[in-house]
Design a protein that fits this description.
Oligomer: single chain
Mean pLDDT: 79
Order of helices and strands: HHHEHEEHEEHH
Strand content: 5-15%
Length: 243
C-alpha cells in the first residue's frame, strides 16, 4: 500500500511482531517444499545465491551513486527506509566548505549560508572547524561586507528555493557540486543594513518551538557552565526560516 510509506513505524511498534510471524510462516512453507525435493542442497544453495546476488546488486548500485555524487547529478530511487532524497557525501560537503572558505578569503568578509536541514548543520560544523567566520543567512541582517550563499539539491527547483530571498538579494553565480549546488546571493543596495557584522556582540536570544540541538562540544560546554548564555543552532535556524 503506498499509504504505508507515509506512516512512521515507531508509532506502530505493536504490529512489529506480525512481520516475524509471517516470516516464520514463509520459512515453514519453504522447508516443507524443500523436503519434497530430492536435491535439497542445490535448492538451498540456489536460494542463498539469489538473496546474496540481489543484496550485492543494490549495494554496488548505491556505492556507485555515492562515487558519482560529487561530479554528477545522480538520479537515485526514492529511499523508503532512510527517507534519503539524494546522495550526498562528506567529500562533497568538504568541497562546498573549501569553496566558501576561498570566497570569504577573496572578499575578506564572513559567509552567510543556509541549506536544507539534512546538510546545513554539517556544513556549519565544517565551516567552524576550518575557522571560517559565518552566520545563518537571513538571521543576523544584511551587511555590505558579506558573502551570501544558499546550498540546495541540484535536482530541486532552485528558482523556487531562492524565491523568498529575491526581495532583498539578486541571484549571482551558481556553482555545481554534483548533487548539490551553491547559489550566490548579492544584496540589493537598499536592503543593506550595516557595513559589517560585529561578531563580538552576543546574538539576541530567539524563542524556538523546536527542542535545542547541540554538538557534543556545545553540550558539554553548556553543562559545565550550567546554562551559560548562547543560542543553539536549532534556535538560530528556526528564526532564520521564520524570517
Amino acid at each position: 500500500m503506498p499509504l504505508a510509506y507515509g506512516i512512521a513505524p515507531r508509532f506502530f511498534l505493536v504490529s512489529a511482531p506480525i512481520f516475524f510471524l509471517f516470516l516464520g510462516f514463509l520459512l515453514t512453507l519453504i522447508v516443507k517444499w524443500i523436503k519434497g525435493v530430492k536435491s535439497k542442497k542445490s535448492i538451498i544453495l540456489l536460494l542463498i545465491g539469489i538473496f546474496a546476488l540481489s543484496n550485492l546488486f543494490f549495494l554496488f548500485e548505491r556505492f556507485d551513486e555515492l562515487r558519482r555524487a560529487g561530479t554528477e547529478q545522480v538520479e537515485s530511487a526514492p529511499d523508503r527506509i532512510l527517507k534519503e532524497r539524494v546522495r550526498v557525501t562528506l567529500e562533497q560537503q568538504k568541497a562546498v566548505v573549501a569553496f566558501l572558505k576561498k570566497r570569504t578569503e577573496e572578499a575578506n568578509a564572513p559567509v552567510y549560508m543556509f541549506s536544507e536541514p539534512q546538510y546545513r548543520r554539517a556544513l556549519k560544523y565544517l565551516l567552524e572547524r576550518e575557522g571560517v567566520q559565518n552566520d545563518v543567512l537571513g538571521f543576523s541582517g544584511i551587511y555590505r561586507q558579506g558573502v551570501y550563499y544558499i546550498i540546495v539539491r541540484s535536482e530541486s527547483d532552485v528558482d523556487v528555493a531562492i524565491q523568498k530571498y529575491l526581495a532583498s538579494y539578486t541571484e549571482g553565480k551558481r556553482t555545481l557540486f554534483g548533487t548539490l549546488v551553491a547559489v550566490e546571493l548579492l544584496p540589493k543596495p537598499e536592503a543593506i543594513q550595516a557595513e559589517r557584522q560585529d561578531f563580538t556582540i552576543p546574538e539576541k536570544k530567539e524563542n524556538s518551538k523546536a527542542p535545542a540541538r547541540y554538538t557534543w562540544n556545545q553540550f558539554f560546554e553548556r553543562n559545565s557552565s550550567q546554562g551559560a548564555s548562547g543560542d543553539s543552532l536549532e534556535e538560530i535556524e528556526d528564526a532564520a526560516t521564520d524570517n
